[in-house]
C-alpha cells in the first residue's frame, strides 16, 4: 500500500520495558526473538519470545534471591544474548542497570563501578583480564557473574547456573520478581557518555524515557514481524539498544547478533537480514567496496546507468531495483530492505545511491540524553540531506537563530532524561524551563525537517563573529578519494588577529599503493594541497583552510567510530 507522507504506523501502548517484553511474548510466543551463536563461526541458534521471557524471569528471580533488589548492577561485554538478558532482568524488577563500554581500560571501568556503587558486575569472559584488573578491592562490589562460566567458583558466579537456580525458585512458588510492579518514572538506567574518566557524564533514564522513544519511532519506521535485524553497533549505546534491540522486540522482529565488523556481509547472508542500523563509516565502507568491485569487473558504467534508470522509474511509482541490481542484493543476503544511519551525519549521495538500488536508507538524529532519538526520516518520506522530522510527541525549536536560521537545537519530550547522575548543576545547565539544550547547531526547512550543521562546542568563530562549522568543511575534504578522514579546527593567528582554519588529514595510502607508483612525501603533500585548493574554491573566504597537517596514523575514535576531537594530537608527516 502506498503511504502518504503524513501517515503514521499504528502502535500499541506500553508502560515500561517489562510490559514491552510481556506483551511481545504474548503476541509472538513462537516467533524467533533472537539468533545467537554459542561459538565464533558457528551456526545461528534461535531463541523464541516465550523462552526469552522465561529466562528473564529466572535470572531476575536469582538476582532477587542474592539480595540485589534496589541495587546497581553493571554489565559489560560484546553484543550477545546474555548481555541483553542481564539488562532486561535488572530493569524488570531488580534495580538500576549500568551498561559499560567494553573498550574502556581497566582504570576507567573501575572508576565507573566506584561512581555507580555497583553491587554486581556481569561480564563476558573475553574481558576477564580487564575485569580482574578493575575490580580488586572495590567495597561495594559483592558479586562477579560470568556470562560464559558453566559452574560457580569462589571468585565468580555462573550466569547459566543463576538461570537454573532462578527456575527452581519459581517452581517452588517464589514469584516476587514476576509480580514486581514497575514505576515507569523511576530511574532505572545509568549510561555513562564517552569521555575520559573525569569527564564522562552519567545519564539517568527511566522506563518512560525509553518506551516513549520506542513507540514514537515505531510510528515513523515500520519494523515488521518478518524482519531480521542485524545488531552491529556496540550494544551499550542507546542508539543500538533502543533502536536496534527494543524497537524490533516491540514489533515482534528477530535480532541476529553480528560477530564483528569484519563479518557483516557473512552474517547478512547467514541470517537473511532485512534491516541493519549502522553509523556512516559502516555504510561508506560498503558503498566504497561496492563501487570498487564494479570498477574491477568493468561494470561501473552499467551500474551508473542502472541507477539513473531506476531513479527515473521510482519517480513515477515504478521500482525495478531487484531486477537491475540482483547481484548486489544477493551478495547482501537477498532479503535486505532497509539501512538506518545515525550517530553522525551520513553522505546524502550514499543514501540516495542505496535508495536507488532498492534498499531504503535514511538517517536520524539523537543523543543519549533523549533516549536517544529526537528526529528521524519516515521510511516513506525521506530527505537525503536531513536528519528527519521530530518524533511524535517531541517539540523542537531552534534557539536564538542567526540571520541564516541556524541556532542551537532544543527539544522537549517524555524521552528527555531525568538528569545527570549526581550532577544537579550540569542538569540545570542543559534542561531549562523543560527544554533540553542539545549543544548541536542546526536549522529547520519549510517542511519541518531538521538539518544539523555542527556541534556548538566545535564551532570556530572569526573576529567578525562568523561561525564556521568544522563538520561542513570536513564533509568536502572527505569527498576526496585521497583523504581517508579529516579533522578541522581553529587556530588564533596573532599577526592577523584572526582565527585560521586548519585541517589534519589522514591520506588513503592503500589507494595510492594501488596506482603502482611510489609517492614521495613531497608528492603526497602536493596532492593534498591540490585537494584543499579545490575544497577552498567551494567555500567563502572566511571558511577556507589556511594550514594543514598530514597524519601518519588514524584518529582516535569512539566506539561509534566518531573522531575524538579532543586528545587527538597532530602528528606532522
Q: Report the portion of residues in β strands.
A: 15-25%
CATH homolog superfamily of the largest domain? ANL, N-terminal domain
Give the neighbour order of strands across the main sheet: 2-1-11-10-12-13-14-15-16
Radius of gyration: 25 Å
- The third-level CATH topology of the largest domain is Rossmann fold
Top CATH class of the largest domain: Alpha Beta
Tell me the number of helical segments per DSSP (H or I, 4 or more residues long): 18
What would the principal axes of the Cα set say about the shape? globular
* Count of discrete structural domains: 3
Spans with pLDDT under 50 lasting ≥5 residues? Answer: 569-573
SSE-based structural type: alpha/beta
The overall pLDDT, averaged over residues, is 92
- Classify the helix fraction into a percent range: 25-40%
Q: What's the architecture of the largest domain, going by CATH?
A: 3-Layer(aba) Sandwich
How many strand segments?
A: 27
Largest sheet: 9 strands, mixed
Describe the structure.
Helix 14 links the parallel strand 13 and strand 14. Strands 2-1-11-10-12-13-14-15-16 form a nine-stranded mixed beta sheet, sandwiched between helices. The longest helix is centred in the N-terminal third of the chain and has 17 residues, at 49-65. The model is unreliable at 569-573 (pLDDT under 50). The chain has 573 residues and is an alpha/beta fold. Helix 2 (49-65) crosses helix 3 (81-91), helix 2 packs across helix 6 and helix 4 crosses helix 5 (128-135). It is 34% helix and 23% strand. The N and C termini lie far apart (57 Å). The protein has three domains: 43-218, Rossmann fold; 279-456, ANL, N-terminal domain (Rossmann fold, 3-Layer(aba) Sandwich), CATH 3.40.50.12780; 459-551, ANL, C-terminal domain (GMP Synthetase, Chain A, domain 3, 2-Layer Sandwich).
Amino acid at each position: 500500500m502506498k503511504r502518504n507522507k503524513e501517515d503514521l504506523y499504528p502502535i500499541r501502548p506500553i508502560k515500561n520495558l517489562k510490559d514491552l517484553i510481556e506483551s511481545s511474548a504474548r503476541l509472538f510466543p513462537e516467533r524467533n526473538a533472537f539468533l545467537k551463536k554459542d561459538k565464533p563461526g558457528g551456526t545461528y541458534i534461535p531463541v523464541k519470545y516465550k523462552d526469552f521471557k522465561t529466562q528473564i524471569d529466572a535470572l531476575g528471580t536469582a538476582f532477587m534471591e542474592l539480595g540485589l533488589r534496589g541495587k546497581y548492577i553493571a554489565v559489560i561485554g560484546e553484543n550477545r544474548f546474555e548481555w541483553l538478558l542481564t539488562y532486561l532482568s535488572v530493569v524488570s524488577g531488580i534495580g538500576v542497570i549500568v551498561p559499560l563500554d567494553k573498550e574502556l581500560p581497566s582504570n576507567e571501568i573501575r572508576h565507573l563501578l566506584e561512581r555507580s556503587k555497583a553491587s554486581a558486575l556481569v561480564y563476558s569472559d573475553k574481558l576477564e583480564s580487564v575485569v580482574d584488573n578493575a575490580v580488586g578491592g572495590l567495597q561495594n562490589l559483592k558479586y562477579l557473574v560470568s556470562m560464559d562460566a558453566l559452574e560457580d567458583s569462589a571468585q565468580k558466579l555462573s550466569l547459566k547456573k543463576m538461570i537454573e537456580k532462578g527456575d527452581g525458585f519459581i517452581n517452588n512458588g517464589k514469584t516476587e520478581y514476576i509480580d514486581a510492579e514497575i514505576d515507569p518514572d523511576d530511574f532505572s538506567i545509568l549510561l555513562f557518555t564517552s569521555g575520559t574518566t573525569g569527564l564522562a557524564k552519567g545519564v539517568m533514564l527511566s522506563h518512560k524515557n525509553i518506551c516513549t522513544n520506542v513507540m514514537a519511532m515505531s510510528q515513523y519506521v515500520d519494523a515488521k514481524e518478518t524482519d531480521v535485524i542485524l545488531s552491529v553497533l556496540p550494544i551499550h549505546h542507546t542508539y543500538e539498544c533502543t533502536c536496534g534491540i527494543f524497537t524490533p522486540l516491540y514489533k515482534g522482529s528477530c535480532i541476529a547478533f553480528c560477530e564483528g565488523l569484519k563479518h557483516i556481509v557473512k552474517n547478512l547472508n547467514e541470517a537473511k537480514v532485512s534491516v541493519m542500523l549502522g553509523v556512516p563509516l559502516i555504510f561508506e565502507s560498503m558503498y566504497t567496496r561496492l563501487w570498487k568491485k564494479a570498477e574491477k569487473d568493468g561494470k561501473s558504467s552499467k551500474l551508473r546507468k542502472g541507477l539513473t534508470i531506476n531513479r527515473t522509474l521510482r519517480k513515477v511509482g515504478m521500482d525495478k531495483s531487484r531486477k537491475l541490481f540482483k547481484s548486489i542484493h544477493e551478495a547482501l543476503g537477498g532479503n535486505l530492505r532497509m539501512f538506518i544511519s545515525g550517530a553522525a551525519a551520513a553522505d546524502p549521495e550514499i543514501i540516495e545511491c542505496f535508495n536507488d538500488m532498492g534498499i531504503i536508507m535514511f538517517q536520524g538524529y539523537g543523543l543519549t540524553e533523549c533516549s536517544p532519538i529526537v528526529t528521524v526520516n519516515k521510511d516513506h518520506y525521506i530527505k537525503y540531506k536531513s536528519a528527519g522530522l521530530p518524533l511524535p510527541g517531541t517539540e523542537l525549536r531552534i534557539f536564538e537563530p542567526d540571520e541564516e536560521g541556524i541556532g542551537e537545537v532544543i527539544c522537549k519530550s517524555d524521552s528527555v532524561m531525568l538528569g545527570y547522575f549526581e550532577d544537579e548543576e550540569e542538569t540545570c545547565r542543559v534542561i531549562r524551563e523543560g527544554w533540553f539544550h542539545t549543544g548541536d547547531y542546526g536549522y529547520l526547512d519549510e517542511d519541518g525537517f531538521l538539518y544539523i550543521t555542527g556541534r556548538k562546542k566545535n564551532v570556530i568563530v572569526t573576529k567578525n563573529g562568523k561561525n564556521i562549522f568544522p563538520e561542513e568543511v570536513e564533509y568536502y575534504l572527505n569527498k576526496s578519494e585521497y583523504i581517508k578522514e579529516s579533522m578541522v579546527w581553529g587556530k588564533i593567528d596573532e599577526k592577523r588577529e584572526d582565527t585560521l582554519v586548519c585541517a589534519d588529514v589522514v591520506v588513503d595510502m592503500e589507494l595510492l599503493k594501488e596506482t603502482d607508483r611510489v609517492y614521495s612525501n613531497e608528492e603526497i603533500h602536493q596532492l593534498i594541497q591540490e585537494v584543499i585548493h579545490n575544497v577552498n574554491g567551494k567555500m567563502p573566504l572566511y571558511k577556507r583552510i589556511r594550514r594543514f597537517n598530514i597524519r601518519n596514523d588514524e584518529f582516535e575514535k569512539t566506539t561509534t567510530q566518531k573522531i575524538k576531537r579532543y586528545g587527538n594530537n597532530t602528528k606532522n608527516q
